[in-house]
Amino acid sequence: MTTGHAPTARTREKPSGEEEATTDLKLGEFEGVPTLTISEARVLINAVVSHRRAQKNEAEPENLTKTRDYLEMFARFKQPEALESVERMLMAKTELEAFERSQLGSLCLDSAEEAKTLIPSLANKISDSDLQELLDDIMKLRNFVE
Description:
146 residues; mainly alpha; two-stranded antiparallel sheet; 2 strands; globular
């Protein structure tokens, strides 16, 4: 039965590439592309905004304001020293892809099991004990904001 009304949602476009984050990480055109944690993205965006404000006094677009609010809310490492320490720990895990390292740094997971469930491509790259040690070290630096 048709109501004569236009659909309330747009049709979803099919993904253009072969990107897939399962046990076999397939990033398509994004393979080998540097990635950022949410905390790193926060630092980068804030630096760009500060630079732009120093150059000219224009109003900040609404989508940029919303992005900054999101990054502020979900960034786990707000102190530069903690962020640099986490980045060093993650970069030392050369067996992991940049995407996997960024996910670990953004999600701040509690257990190796949880990490391998949410980031399935970790399954055969790092032992549970090594992953748990990394997660524990990251949690020591996590900035809890209440």
